[in-house]
Amino acid sequence: MLSVLRTINKRPLFQASRAISTSRFLLQQKPPKDSKPQSILTDDMLERAGMDTDKPTSKNAKTEAGAEGERPKSKRIRKTSTDLRREKYANWMYIFSFSALAGSALYLTRDWEEGEPEEMTSKVENGYAPSLMYQRFKLRWNSMFTYFQEPPFPDLLPDSPPAPYKRPLTLVLSLEDLLVHSEWSQKHGWRTAKRPGVDYFLGYLSQYYEIVLFSSNYMMYSERVVEKLDPLHAFISYNLYKEHCVYRDGAHIKDLSKLNRDVNKVVIIDTDPSNYQLQPENAIPMKPWDGTPDDKLIQLIPFLEYIATQQPNDVKPVLNSFHDKYELPQEFQVRVQKLKEKFEKEQAQKAGGNWALKLLGVAPGASAGGASKFPLDMIREEGEKNYVRFMQMIEEEKAKMKIQQEQMSGQTFTLKDYVEGNIPTPEEQMQKQLEKQKEVDQLFEQQKNDQTAAK
Q1: H or E segment at 19?
Q2: Residues annotated as region Disordered (predicted)?
Q3: Counting Cβ atoms within 10 Å, is residue 103 exposed (0-12), middle (13-18) or buried (19+)?
Q4: Rounded CA gap, 149 and 244, in Å?
Q5: Residue 73's pLDDT band (cuts 50, 70, 90)
Q6: Mind spelling out the 3-state secondary structure of 335-348?
Q7: What 3-state DSSP class applies to 54?
Q8: End-to-end CA distance of the chain
């Protein structure tokens, strides 16, 4: 516009107006179709800022000069110093990872060392032959995964007690749908029902068996139920949970060989065959209990009592002699009835042949002190007497514990006692505990005498 104004000043008026109209025509003129908008940022400025551009290299420039209309085959990627540093670190990481994997694999092929499981060392010898190295690598590699499939301890139970306190057989019992049944409802939530006869079943068989409760659930879910079943730990010797199972093919299995007991003297009662699939010959299967009252547990007692009193070296032949283990109590009862009939016939024949005793007026079997009684009946009578005595001891212990809790409820130590050092020594605490135990025994005897006098 300044040039136009200067031209106006130097030219006549008609020429000036003509120039203005011409310049206005040029401003209103549309740009050609082929023209593209130009940016004020040049390629050099973008490259200095560290940005990628489409500017071809010198080689590409020659290509464009030689063949017009052809685009360059490749573009130069401009990388910043940060990108270069990242690529460098990534390359070093790849090299380090590959070296670590190769070194670990080579370390797994080393010779056997002391303390490694004998199950592996006995399979492959030492040596650096390729085949031996591969076999050692394979065994060690597989053991890394089997570690998470095995129980936390190689022996789930401690060693058996000495002979006077040792039970002849071990009885493994499931918890869910055998001794208890849990249900959930929208009204009451989770509720657990105890099967009829559980207390008598556990109390009676505890005189013959080392009872191990093996739950199919985790400890955090089953521990409270177990405590309700046996709060004094008088019947159940040990408790095991799902954490102690062996994991195989997607299933948790109760492996009896991990109990630190002779498998030939272990009997397991369970409602799920997959739980004892490693030792099916040791199992007495039962159908899951749905919560309705029944006496299936009580029906098992005669057979379990019989097999425990006979003390066989191997329980598997005895269990496998039954055609249908689900009907084991009924089949055992039929066998007992046949034996009883045979025994009575033999006793009748012996009584008929003893004519000399009849002449003397002596009743048959009297000289033997009632030996004509059926042996299994005698065993059951003795077992009932022991059960009654045992339950009396349990009731006495419950009464003593109740008195002891009442006596010990007031003994507390405050923070002031800890700060001033008024806490008795362990020896003094033990002495006070013994004195309290004597007081509890005296109070219990006094209550017992008062109850006897009241009767």
Answers
A1: helix 13-28
A2: 28-80, 419-455
A3: exposed
A4: 10
A5: low
A6: HHHHHHHHHHHHHH
A7: coil
A8: 132
- The residue assigned the tokens 């460098």 is 88
Are 115 and 187 in the same domain? Answer: no
Per DSSP, the three-state class of 217 is coil
DSSP type of residue 72: P
Instruction: Write out the residue range of the structural domain in which residue 126 sits.
Output: 81-146
- Give CB contacts under 8 A, 24+ apart, made by 40-48: 47/78
Question: pTM higher than 0.85, yes or no?
Answer: no
Residue 135 forms part of a structural domain: yes
**Lowest pLDDT segment from 8-22, 72-86, 93-107:** 8-22
The tally of domains found in the chain comes to 2
As a whole number of angstroms, the distance between CA 311 and CA 168 comes to 6
Q: Based on the domain organization, do 99 and 195 belong to the same domain?
A: no
The 3-state DSSP class for residue 180 equals strand
Token pair belonging to 113: 């060392």
Distance CA 153, CA 161 (A): 19
Measure the CA–CA gap between 198 and 297, rounded to whole angstroms: 7
Contact 421, 428 (CB under 8 A): no
Structure letter (DSSP) for residue 370: S
